[in-house]
Design goal:
The structure is a homodimer.
Chain A (H helix, E strand, L loop, with lengths): L4 H8 L3 E6 L5 H7 L7 E6 L5 E4 L4 H6 L3 E4 L4 H10 L4 H16 L3 E6 L1 E3 H14 L3 E4 L6 H6 L4 H26 L3 E2 L2 E2 L9 H15 L1 E2 L5 E4 L21 E6 L2 E2 L8 E7 L4 H18 L8 H14 L21 E2 L6 E4 L15 E4 L2 E4 L4 E4 L2 E5 L5 E3 L8 E2 L4 H4 L16 H15 L4
Parallel strand pairs in A: 1-5, 3-4, 5-7, 14-22
Antiparallel strand pairs in A: 1-2, 2-3, 8-9, 10-13, 11-12, 12-14, 15-16, 17-20, 18-19, 20-21
Chain lengths: 451, 451
Amino acid sequence: MKNDIDRLMAESGVETLWVTGPALHNPPMTYFTGLANLTHGDLIKQRGQEPILFYWPMEREEAARTGLAGKSVNDYRLLELEVLRQSGGSNIRATAARMLRIFDELGVSGPVEVYGHVELGPMYGVLTELAKLRPGVSFVGEEERAVLSRAMITKDDAEVEHIRHIGRIATEVMQMVADYLTSRPVAGRQLLRRDGQPLTVGDVKRKIRLWLAEQGGEDPEGVIFAIGRDAGVPHNPGTARDPIEIGKPIVFDFFPQEAGGGYFYDITRTWCLDHAPRPVEEIYRDVLAAYRHACGLLEPDTLCRTIQTQTCRFLEARGHPTLLNSPQTQVGYCHSLGHGVGLNIHEEPRFNHLEANGDRLLPGSVITIEPGLYYPERALGVRLENTLWARPDGTMEVLADLPLDLVLPMKSKASRAKGSGPPARTRKKPPARKGSSEAARGPTRRSKRAK
Amino acid sequence: MKNDIDRLMAESGVETLWVTGPALHNPPMTYFTGLANLTHGDLIKQRGQEPILFYWPMEREEAARTGLAGKSVNDYRLLELEVLRQSGGSNIRATAARMLRIFDELGVSGPVEVYGHVELGPMYGVLTELAKLRPGVSFVGEEERAVLSRAMITKDDAEVEHIRHIGRIATEVMQMVADYLTSRPVAGRQLLRRDGQPLTVGDVKRKIRLWLAEQGGEDPEGVIFAIGRDAGVPHNPGTARDPIEIGKPIVFDFFPQEAGGGYFYDITRTWCLDHAPRPVEEIYRDVLAAYRHACGLLEPDTLCRTIQTQTCRFLEARGHPTLLNSPQTQVGYCHSLGHGVGLNIHEEPRFNHLEANGDRLLPGSVITIEPGLYYPERALGVRLENTLWARPDGTMEVLADLPLDLVLPMKSKASRAKGSGPPARTRKKPPARKGSSEAARGPTRRSKRAK
């Protein structure tokens, strides 16, 4: 949490943090500023002191709204202009000169941790130039050991409320999508739009984007809505022209962000409209069982890699290849179990099985649990994912819930008769359907306070 | 343009470009991949050769869709795992080991230009590590001199069509906003929502976001919709709770992007609903005249700094302070005249007046022209902006047009009587109004092919 920063700095012997770049879509800056319309800023946080935000004069009012102590870079403008003139227009040298002056004013020395989601080349130039000009200062930025990454591993109550808020939006939109799909008319196996044309993945994605905007979210990282064979490749986002058909698996992985670059939520459901073919049903059961099994292992302070290893063994026992027994597999269970969620869609803790992964499940973390199974050659893919908060009392809470059901029964039975194509062949309920629906409801309720 | 890359590499003696990071919201990667759902990739472009995309195995299908030659990083996985084990889990060292192997396979040596909109710290670590391991390789990334920045300065026809497309969306949404505002009932001076409550800046921004999503755009950089005093501070995005009132200047600066991280458009209008007070009218006339004056200077190969200098002199002659005669001013004309627009909202060429700015207006560039005047203490701010394409034939074209009018007459005269507050005091048309409206229409038509 934010109030761990000074302790973490002391523990790692880091005297200074330097965050650079805009306040929007730049998690380490947003962590300090909140959502603010700053297109560029530099924030210096020294151990035991309040952070200082160096802002552009045009953005002085937005800088003031952050509530942070601030200083205008206009104060260094003449220095920069002089360096620009001398260097024949090198912005890298001008920026380095400004930062050196700021370091001197603040007495910065020793290792400085650098942060910022920015264009790499120019900042690499600035850091290299600074290290040359001031050999006493060095720059470090190791992803998983950095102070801010470690602070962000646990969330304070205000942050959890943000994640809960965007979670509510995410599940609301997913419910709208489910309602929309199940009320479409069907011709043959294809769902139809209002104009009688086949409904496509592209159409559904446009609806998702619209409904999300309406609710105050955005999806800068895209959305996965992949049907059939595409569902069998974990990061395949879906093919826009693919028609939506009954009886095919749809992997709907939704990871929206609060509008403007705030907190993320991450949730996946796998749906079959009307009915699920037996092979989908079978791997769905295995994924659901793996999800329940993993949730049962979420004890405070457990090593995250252990939970992934156990999940691999659980799925291997059911006959699936995993990254544990086949490190290069692209079928079966071929990704890690989850990740932290916050201002970044992927952050600490990590749930890979590698021995080097020392992350533990700390109270206060917000994580995803998302087992999946993939067999693209058989047009099979299933993933189930929830975002869970490790509460301070040691229990887990799904922050925004939605049924885990595989089969979404079509509401529009009557309208199907109006379809222009041949009647669907597999109209009768498959025998496994009811079972799966019940199996799905169980863990949903349980995982609300899994453990 | 993209097909200048090899020539530009030869000119600057750069043998290799390395672009890292996702394909979404990462302009240098998107430049090569198009919009693709790659959460991470490394692209190596050697002079005279086709680029090669190194992708994650889970994203092999999206990588294939880009049409680029590709290779899975799975081929280096065992190497990375070994380095991770030896280094106690350093992702920086593992990544450096993989890239070193790739460099060796491709015979990379000499200066490598690095690109990518990514988290700075870890990549600074990787580059530092690589430079240590292989002293023959060095990394450079100067913003304005880099090969890709210089290639991106001019756009090919396909790119111009993308910008025109999002421009059409931008102007469509702005027209919807204008229609919405002018058809609101008014009570006192305040516009009302359907539920009778005062309409606020926050309400309007929600509408903008929704209508933009509906049209297939997104606004990752936010939107400026600032009224009254806020309009007087260039980057003030507007205060959500501010009521929308007639007769106050509204600066509406809209810079949406094709959904998913494509091309941007950038356009600003300043509006007064119902009527404009004389001081707003006066600075509006000066800004409009400055816009027309600047458009008249847009000859191919002109130094961009000259156009800014001339614009400063033009506004100084009308009594306004500018960055030319008052380098630290925060009132008057206190920003540069424009910038290139493409996959980045701000790119080359730059239109500041500094001697070090050697950018010229090249045929093929897409730029903004956006003079403005700001006096926040008098609640005065006006900016007018269009995005223009410097066509290969030497003429300029506004890529998506919208009237430049200051005053938006209210359509809802009748409904105003229904307003619950006192009647608006300044109901009669101010004398300057008709003039301004005509003045506004002139340059709109002319600038469609300004020059």
